[in-house]
Amino acid sequence: MKKKHLLKELVEKKSHLGATQVNSTMFQYIQGYRGKTPVLNLHETLYLLQKTLAFLKMLHAGKHQILLINSEPKYSALVQFLAKKLQQPYVNEAWIGGLLTNWEQMKTSVVAFHKFDAFFESSLQKQSTPFPKYLKTKKKLSGVKTLQQRPAAVFLFQTLNNENIIREAKVLNIPVIGLVETSAQIKTIEYPVPLNNQSMKSVYLFCQLWWSSVQKESLE
Q1: Which of 207, 111, 121 shows the shortest CA–CA distance to 157?
Q2: Is residue 87 left, alpha or beta, with left meaning phi > 0 and alpha meaning psi from -120 to 50?
Q3: Which of 27, 126, 178, 184 has its CA 20 to 30 A from that of 166?
Q4: What is the pLDDT of residues 121-169, one digit of tens each?
Q5: Does the residue 12 lie in any domain?
Q6: What digits encode the pLDDT tens for the residues 196-214?
């Protein structure tokens, strides 16, 4: 997608509109204000977007695993769909504490649960009595079934209020990629994309660009 057309797409998807509260680390990425709403400099966003897509493309070419992490329920279906198309592991809505820093133990638990699930799933589904703990555990672990080792990078659809995940990644020197809104800290993210991540259309556009970059790599 050409730069001019992509800038137009970003504006149409309201990718440039920020949250009322602005983190001081985001000031350099703000072009101005529309009333009380901060407006992101989309030329800065576009530069960082291209840099991030190049990194994601490189990881894909090397067949590395990227852990997609989403804490916003309204994006759950989109994240699951993208992760399956990319053949990457994902975590939706609820983070599993220690998944990165305590991976060896977590891996054993994940493998054990999926063996149990594969054996009992059909019979459990026939039961009229629900099993809340089983369903909750399945929701947490279903996306990391294919996670073979610690990921080469983590991708956060929301960086705000996910500092514990970022800290886990930092301890292990795992690069953090993230869509960063104006109220979030940007300096802790190695590959940030300043973007309105409250806009479904904006997030969907990013997912399209990610998938397109992978398809191009596959065809080359």
Answers
A1: 207
A2: left
A3: 27
A4: 666 566 655 567 767 777 778 889 888 889 999 999 999 999 999 999 9
A5: yes
A6: 999 999 999 999 999 999 8
